[in-house]
Amino acid sequence: MANTRIQAITLFIILALVCAFVPTFSVEEAEAKSLWDTCLLKISPKCALDIIGVVFENLTITDSCCHDLVQEGKMCNDKLIKYIADKPLLIANEKKYLKKSDDLWTHCVSISPTA
């Protein structure tokens, strides 16, 4: 079971990285660079994986990662999830992923001491 979880998370990381360097998808190269430069540098790789896992794999997130997410900001969270959800393999469920992202944001804001 844990092996499947690791494989799924690894798949999403690979997908995100590949898509970041292939501008032929729906997000332009400048937008991908902006996402990496302004958002993903503000959050730990583990928390980024947790966020992706919650939205795309129904996993859970720690309170400390919720705090990091709130510190990162809603715009960055929305950009990251939209960027991944826009990919051809995921676009059919994009609305579901965006809703889950909003639910995650609401949850994290409610438990974050800086909210």
Search tags:
115 residues; mainly alpha; 6 helices; 71% helix; globular
Taken as a percent bin, the fraction of beta residues is under 5%
Look at the helices and sheets and give the structural class: mainly alpha
Number of strands: 0
Poorly predicted runs? 21-27
InterPro entries: Prolamin-like
Pfam family, one: Prolamin_like
Domain Prolamin-like: 38-109
Signal peptide: 1-20
3D architecture notes:
The protein has 115 residues and is mainly α. It has one domain. It is 71% helix and 0% strand. It has six helices and no strands. Helix 3 crosses helix 4 and helix 5 packs antiparallel against helix 6. The longest helix has 19 residues. It starts with a helix and ends with a helix. Pfam families: Prolamin_like.
